[in-house]
Design brief:
- The protein is of the alpha+beta class.
- It is about 20% helix and about 40% strand.
- The chain contains two helices and eight strands.
- A four-stranded antiparallel β-sheet has the order 2-5-1-6, covered by helices on one side. It has a two-stranded antiparallel ribbon with strand order 3-4.
- Helix 1 runs antiparallel to helix 2.
- The termini are close together.
Length: about 100
């Protein structure tokens, strides 16, 4: 299993979530976050804007759906300008469903 952490623009959150659901990946967690990329923000005159609102989408999927999930996220989150976000992928060793106490997704 893999965990995807996709940090996207807030206005792209629902578009990405809906596209993932239509691709058969409806389960995710959304978190409102703030951050900056490698440019360390934007300076306008004397004012520096160094933290921007983003949404982090967290989803755990089976390995065979990884490429499709990343493609869906990249395709639907992209505006073509700086600040569109990042996607991080990590290994998940185990998952449990709390209500059932069962191992697995």
């Amino acid at each position: 299993m893999k965990m995807i952490r996709a940090i996207v623009r807030p206005d792209k959150t629902e578009v990405v979530a809906e596209a993932l659901a239509q691709a058969g990946m409806p389960s995710l967690t959304k978190m409102h976050v703030f951050g900056r990329g490698r440019t360390k923000g934007i300076r306008i005159g004397d004012v520096v804007y160094d933290e921007f609102p983003k949404t982090m989408l967290l989803l755990v999927i089976e390995d065979e759906k990884l490429d499709e999930a990343i493609s869906v996220i990249l395709e639907n989150a992209k505006t073509g300008t700086m600040g569109d976000g990042k996607v991080f992928v990590t290994e998940v060793e185990e998952a449990y469903t709390v209500s059932k106490g069962a191992k697995g997704l």
